[in-house]
Design a protein that fits this description.
The chain contains two helices and three strands; from the N terminus they run αβββα. The chain is of the alpha+beta class and about 80 residues long.
Length: about 80
């Protein structure tokens, strides 16, 4: 039981560290900054592009940021040595 409590504490600490992770993806002047909790912290648009193009690029940036954050956090979790 104590081991499980200790693991929970370690996971909570890792979760707090993940919040600090940030990643920005930019495509043709449209950018998204996402943190380790998958919260979007900032969006920048390019007014020189049409609405449809900005929307498409924004979707691409969001998708890429999410995938990159997932991979980064999975790597940290695997390297942490916390076993279940």
């Amino acid at each position: 039981m104590f081991d499980q409590f200790k693991k929970l504490q370690e996971l909570k600490k890792m979760q707090d560290e993940f919040k600090k992770e940030k990643l920005t993806v930019e495509k043709r002047g449209v950018s998204v900054t996402m943190n380790g909790n998958f919260d979007v912290e900032e969006i920048k648009l390019n007014s020189e592009l049409g609405t449809d193009e900005q929307q498409n690029l924004l979707k691409q940036c969001l998708h890429e940021a999410k995938e990159s954050i997932q991979k980064k956090l999975a790597g940290k979790l695997m390297g942490s040595g916390i076993g279940f």
